């Protein structure tokens, strides 16, 4: 076993004798976590205790502070970082260095082996020197400590150790059937370790709030990546030899043909995680190194319905409410894939869903289930397309019709005809902004006079990442940026910093909107074939807030950052 030398440099700051640290009670008092009376009571209790209990422990046991409050105060006191384990993926070498039973007993988890050979360990009690000595002895490494909570250890111990166990067991299982390598897609898909590994991959993505999972074979290994808040993050890698079994297991769960590996396929998985069902859309794509799997997660709990949850500004909210009361016409919601269009449409449907209104939708797939709404799921293999479903819907005496997406001329034509015959139609388009929807409809061979007559309004939207409220930082914007955004010199905005509770300073997403209501002036411009640049200028002059203006407003309030707004909007 490697010998280690205990030096002051490798000890946690908590036990280094050269730096004085402020009392924990003073830090909690300064942070506003406790009152002076609570601190005095804890100090008196500490004097009465013969076991030498710490002030923080007494306050936590008395529920004066939470585990998180205590961990943050320890982090400030000792100068150690605080680690959230829910998003941390295990490093095999680190996990194998400390047995699971020891980690549970000492309330710690080994996270990774650093470049300098130190073992990064997350501890609930970084002042427990006996626990540190035991970890050094078992691992043969000196330590670098970070702080976590007991709840984090409890919630993530099984996941971090279980995932590595699944990987190790799957490798052993696959190695034992080496002579049958040409068949091991079919064999491996049903092996218990592979089944457990895939279950952990999917459930962890849901728990992290991911919108997509990417399973990709690379040159030397395969990797898992999760898209969280619109950004792809690496989760972990696994041996390339396991990838055929992993992809086959996912295809089995999605009802896809595991024998067909030369053509792209689509499927669906209904997964139960934490007591609720989550829908996953699965797509396979043949690549030069094997099949790439992409899974879109449709989790209703991650996007609650309701106009009040959309983040609309008051004037835009009033426009949307007017759309809800319109009896005929077309309302289009535009934006790129994954920008929250379906959430906006279903929130509007929920608002107008009344016993006296017949609402029928045609979707691919049905993402939100709404009581009182007749929802049709497109099934092209069975001949149920958007076009055929719409023709049938018009014979169902509908008042409001929702079309998941207008994709072609025929669908656009039926939607326009429905709008002009007394129905209100909701749908989505893929355009960069609200005026661009007009050009897109004309491109689909809908005459300008029909677009002008049928279109009631367009909502363009994007999703921007929200700043973490715990670590965001206010600053004064540069004069040049203020000039570009037409803001007063010296205007203050907020920027991302990063802490244990967020990803690079961001946590969650919020939508920014561009709501264009068509009045007679705009209809006349569409009828005359005016391009979308002039249409945008006139709509802005008549009170439309652009996507960038909506984003800048949220950035000035500290909801998001200027960098995030500029990254997702095209123009001022």
Tag the structure with descriptive keywords.
alpha/beta, seven-stranded mixed β-sheet, globular, 18 strands, disordered N terminus, 572 residues, 22% strand, six-stranded antiparallel β-sheet
Verbal overview:
The chain is 39% helix and 22% strand. It has 572 residues and is α/β, with parallel strands linked by helices. Strand 8 (276-287) and strand 9 (290-298) form a beta hairpin. The chain has 22 helices and 18 strands. It is globular and about 85 Å long. It has a seven-stranded mixed β-sheet, sandwiched between helices. The protein has helices spanning 24-30, 36-48, 55-61, 67-78, 92-97, 100-106, 129-139, 150-176, 184-188, 192-207, 243-253, 314-324, 341-352, 386-393, 409-420, 436-443, 448-454, 479-484, 520-527, 532-541, 547-556, 562-568; strands at residues 108-113, 119-123, 143-147, 212-217, 221-228, 231-239, 265-273, 276-287, 290-298, 329-334, 359-363, 374-377, 400-403, 424-429, 455-467, 473-476, 492-495, 506-517. The model is unreliable at 1-18 and 179-188 (pLDDT under 50). Helix 2 (36-48) packs across helix 3 (55-61), helix 10 crosses helix 11 (243-253) and helix 15 packs across helix 17. The longest helix is centred in the first third of the chain and has 27 residues, at 150-176.
